[in-house]
Design goal:
alpha+beta, 38% helix, 141 residues, two-stranded antiparallel ribbon, 5 strands
């Protein structure tokens, strides 16, 4: 629990930020710090729904082949690892759910806008790359 001094400093900091951001031409800095749980997720899909509080929850997952439970190898005459002779694994595809992301409506709308911008940028880059390849092919002929 924060002591009185810490709470007072936090209150003063918030009040100072309010004053700074309410003046004309105001600016605020956001400092990005990676949490201890930060990691890169390779996402191939998502599922989820709406919470009772009307937030959106989205489970993101990655698809991958299953990791073998056991792999058996021969041992060669010189005591080195030889060829694989057996493998025990489940069949099918593993759908590994990595995280459940919960956001309110405004964040979801912002995320849609951000994703749409990134998709448009990629689509334009693909179109430009195709045009360049077509021009290079035409010039070579």
């Amino acid at each position: 629990m924060a002591d009185e001094h810490t709470e007072d400093v936090l209150y003063q900091s918030v009040e100072h930020q309010k004053e700074e951001t309410q003046s004309p031409g105001a600016k605020i800095e956001f400092h990005y710090i990676k949490s201890n749980h930060f990691r890169v997720l390779h996402v191939t899909g998502a599922f989820g729904g709406i919470t009772p509080q009307l937030d959106i929850h989205m489970n993101v997952f990655g698809d991958r082949p299953p990791i073998p439970k056991i792999i058996t190898h021969e041992i060669t005459l010189d005591s080195t690892l030889g060829k694989e002779t057996g493998r025990t694994s489940i069949s099918g595809i593993v759908r590994e759910v990595e995280a459940d992301i919960v956001m309110d409506l405004n964040v979801a709308k912002s995320l849609i806008t951000w994703l749409t911008d990134k998709v448009t940028t990629i689509e334009n880059a693909i179109k430009e790359s195709s045009r360049t390849q077509e021009n290079d092919s035409a010039a070579a002929n």
